[in-house]
Amino acid sequence: MEEVGPSFLDNIDRRAKREDGTLPPTYSRIIVIAEIEEGVKPNQIIEYNEELLDGINRTLGCKTTGLLLVQERCLLHFLETPQDACLEFLKSLREQESGAEGQETLLTKVTILHSAE
Predict the structure, then answer these.
(1) Which residues have C-beta within 8 Å of that of residue 113, sequence separation ≥ 6?
(2) b/e per residue, 63-89, with b = 16+ CB within 10 A?
(3) For 7, phi and psi rounded to 5 degrees?
(4) Are 36 and 106 in contact (CB under 8 A)?
């Protein structure tokens, strides 16, 4: 039987690897749409977001890119990040939305769209 092309396993093995031979982490894309809690100023949202992402990037040693739009009481956030950082971001967002101990609730009616590759 004639081989048509490289097998699935061959393709996996050809993916770009890091210097130590391991594969880079899977990337996720997230879109967050939310309503900003009444009385919360846009700069509070921006500061919270910067602190959260800086902490995740520093802790996990990764690079996160994104776009944050805040207009009146609406928030739209596009984020592209390694999978492990994505999970940390979603966990922090859930804790913040639920008003976990020591956290002021900034967002309500949060909708998250997520895709990974």
Answers:
(1) 30, 31, 32, 33
(2) ebebebebeeeebebebebbeebbebb
(3) -75, 165
(4) yes
Please report, for residues 11, 19, 20, 108, the alpha-carbon distance to residue 23 in angstroms, rounded to integers and kept in the order given. Answer: 13, 9, 9, 37
Q: What is the pLDDT of residues 1-32, one digit of tens each?
A: 555 555 555 555 555 556 666 656 677 888 88
CATH fold group of domain 25-116: Alpha-Beta Plaits (3.30.70)
Which residue, among 79, 78, 70, 55, has the nearest Cα to 106 in the 3D structure? 70
Q: pLDDT grade, residue 96 (50/70/90)? A: confident
Residue-level pLDDT at 7:
57
Amino acid code (one letter) for 90: L
Q: How many CB atoms lie within 10 A of CB 111?
A: 9
